[in-house]
Specification:
single chain; 177 residues; alpha+beta; Peroxidase, domain 1; Glutaredoxin; four-stranded mixed sheet; 4 strands
């Protein structure tokens, strides 16, 4: 399924960049995704195999009209509905986001801290990570008081653990050996 998800996502990324609409398309797909996430009945409607594709398409056209989505986003959503892939919308959207970041040369970095850090510190951390990685970074912050202090950053599959908790584990391991 991952290959299929990536195919749909890459096709949309290619078209949206070719037409210079990648930002709008991402925003509109995010809007549709939020609607799916917030509305349990709508998700159940799309997941129900007993409901015909014609009814799903008609309902989707009404939603698209109310949301006032662009032609690119509308057509993409309709393709997913007609091919019964709308149940994978969230995963496809994440693959679209990744494809857009790849095209723009942006790396998603997950940052975990023990407390919320101010905007200036976030900015400085972003600059430092950009210099280390050599690409533009998009930071996503998470708070986890269990790490006690410091910062844990995750870039793709690489984790840089500079937390106080990790340092304590290293000291304990060193003292035990």
């Amino acid at each position: 399924m991952a290959v299929l998800i990536n195919r749909y996502a890459q096709a949309l990324v290619d078209v949206s960049f070719k037409l210079g609409q990648h930002e709008i398309v991402e925003q509109e797909l995010d809007q549709f995704d939020q609607l799916l996430r917030q509305n349990q009945e709508l998700r159940a409607f799309y997941m129900n195999p007993a409901i015909s594709g014609v009814k799903k398409k008609a309902a989707t056209l009404q939603l698209i009209s109310k949301l006032d989505l662009s032609k690119i986003a509308s057509n993409f959503i309709l393709v997913l509905v007609s091919r019964n892939r709308i149940t994978h919308f969230t995963e496809i959207l994440e693959a679209v986001r990744q494809g857009i970041r790849d095209c723009l040369g942006i790396v998603q970095v997950e940052v975990t801290t023990s407390i919320k850090i101010d905007m200036e510190s976030q900015y400085q951390l972003g600059l430092a990570l950009r210099d280390i990685i050599g690409k533009e970074v998009k930071l996503q912050f998470e708070i986890n008081p269990d790490i006690l202090g410091g910062v844990i950053t995750r870039v793709d599959d690489t984790i840089y653990d500079g937390s106080v908790l990790q340092q304590l584990h290293l000291i304990k391991s060193h003292l035990s050996s």
